[in-house]
Structure formats: C-alpha cells, structure tokens
Amino acid sequence: MNKQAFIIIDMENGFINPESAQCIRMAAQTVNRCAKAAEAARMRGIPVIFVNRIYRKSGVDVEHTRYRAWYDGGRAMSEDCEPVIDSNNPAGLSPQENDMIIIKPRFSAFFMTELDLILRRLGIDTVILTGTTTPNCIRTTCYDAISLDYNVVVIDDCCSSQTEEIQRANMFDMKNIGAHIITADEFVSDNYEIQYDSLAVCREEVRNGI
Amino acid sequence: MNKQAFIIIDMENGFINPESAQCIRMAAQTVNRCAKAAEAARMRGIPVIFVNRIYRKSGVDVEHTRYRAWYDGGRAMSEDCEPVIDSNNPAGLSPQENDMIIIKPRFSAFFMTELDLILRRLGIDTVILTGTTTPNCIRTTCYDAISLDYNVVVIDDCCSSQTEEIQRANMFDMKNIGAHIITADEFVSDNYEIQYDSLAVCREEVRNGI
Question: What predicted TM-score, i.e. pTM, was given to this entire model?
Fold first, then answer.
C-alpha cells in the first residue's frame, strides 16, 4: 500500500481570477474538481498540502524574469494587491483543519521549501500533484519529486495551462519520464490505486541485483 | 557586460549513439554545432563546463522510473557498459584544457551538484545552455537557473529531443518563462550579446523601488 500525499499548487486568486495579470486561463475551471479530489484524499486519510506563492510587496522574491510584468500588473499575491488577486485560495478550495500550508518562493514546490522534510517525516512515497500552472510549477515539482525518489501521480484535469496544447505537450513529457497521468474521476473512484510502484520495484531490484 | 558560462549537458556516447537504449534521436546532429559554439565561448574567455551523467553499475543512482529500461538496455554510461554507450563525450566534443567537468545524479545540472557554487565563485550572472535532452535535462536546468537568479540563454539548435515537436513545445515554454532562445549562428557571430539582462534590470528596480 502506497503512502501518499495530495498536493495542491498555486491555486490562488492571483492565478485564477481573470482580473489578474498572472491569470492562468484554464485554472478557474479546475477549482471544483480539485476540491472534490482533495476531499476524496482526506476521506482516505491522505494528507493534503497546499503549496502557495506569497510575494513580498517589494518584489525581492519574484523571479527576475517576471518581476516587471508582476509589478506593472498590480503585484498579485502580495500584501499590496487588490483582494481579487491576492494569495488566498478560492472559495470552495481553502485549507481544511489538518491540511498543511507551505509557502514556496519559486516554481517547484520542493525548491527551498520544507516539503521534502515533511514528506520524509510522514514516510510518504507517492505524491499526487494538482494545481497550476502545468508547464511551470506542476512540472518542476514532478521532476524534483522523481529526482528525490517519489512516485508521481499527476491528475491531468486538476491541473491547468494557458492553452490545451501546452497542457497536452507537458503531460506527454511528464508521462515519458515516468509520472502516472490520471483523471479526477479515476482518483475519486473507489477503485483508485497507483498503477505501478516503480520506486518499490527499483528499490527491490537494486538491493538484490535484478 | 554579462559574465557568462557555457554549459554542455549530457553530450555523452550513451545518449548520442543509436546503439544505446538511451539514445536521443536528434542529439548526434548537434555535436558539431555544440563543438563550434563551445570553441567560440573559449575564444571569448567564457568558461566551458561539461555536465555529465555517470551511473554506478549497480544502478543505485539511476532515476527509479528509468532503472529497468536502463538495466535491460545495457547499463549505459556506467563502468559495465559497452564503449559505444559509455559516459565519454564524443570525438570532437571532449573537454579541453581549462574546461570543467561536473557529474550530475539527476536531470537538472544544479540538482545536488557543485554547479551553483562554482558559478557564484566565478561571479557568473548568465548561463548558456546546450546539450541533451531538451525536455528533461536542459529544461530542468533552465528552470533551476532562473530560480537561482541567473539569466538563461538556450541555444536551440545545440539542444536535442526525440522529435522536432517536443523540441518546439519545450522551447516555447522556456521562452515563456524568460529564457533567451537563440541559434548557434547567432552565438558564434561577432555581434552576439545577451538580448535583455532581466536580472540586472530587476535588481536595479527592486533596489530602488521602480
């Protein structure tokens, strides 16, 4: 039986609302599905972790390539911005009691955060990824997770991109490196289980010499 | 004037030769262009850094999602494999005197390597990325480099993928997060200079408040 964690990345007003310069076009339509999948995780005792972006109002922690657009666009997800583009998770997808919240400074949920330490402490071997945006924060988290020896499950229709074409190209690449791509319906189903535990298989074979 | 480093990722026999199970289809055709661009870098006094994969023959350091295919395919880039799929850089693209070599255990050239420490010591602000494979090792290095506050230049036709479609989709995403995508001809040209120093601009604006 895999020990899983359910991770929701950057599902914040500043990335979801059309008013925001940082809006990801397909994100709003995934809010309800993410909420439903997160609830299924909680019912199974799978820890739910929100990984959010919060920028300082000076912008000293914004990626240098994004700084100008972020500044000119109203400094979304900082103290100074309008409520409609703030760092809160949207109504219906906010952290519940016992969920965890991690603030990340860059794309990957692992990059200079305590996520790996928390997952180790909990004995997690499999991360389930949801949120936005697929080509940036979901994908970098996926690659870091595989690099750190986690199995990775990506719930395709709980993730979002600016276009369907970007979404497809990125799911293709992540599948190619060994991520399991599933749908929200599959995850919510009573029959859900991880398709192939490549970590356990690899560990066994390395230990024994195939 | 930017302080640059020229980085060549995973251009090894095991990723280039068609005999290898890990062969990247478009890699062989980039060898000469990489060599020419690296030589232009050396002539300008830009440090050249080879970042290579070398696996242990037990496979304990192979990504768990790749372990089986790697093992069954002849354990490329390890002590045990045939010379044609070893970890050497191909003829015509081997490290020259004063070039540096770094061994990396995962996709990104920054992931648990000394690359960032070396770049800091040298005062580098801009990394020029070449090598293979575009969706995995080039792209993760690009995202980590931007996360670590480097300007990123990717030489499109010195990088390679399994298909042209994958190459295009990944260049598109990297351009979107602020990488400069150029060609080998542009880099080799006497007129070459980095197009936009977003790091310097951002630093100045953050310091002064725009």
Answer: 0.95
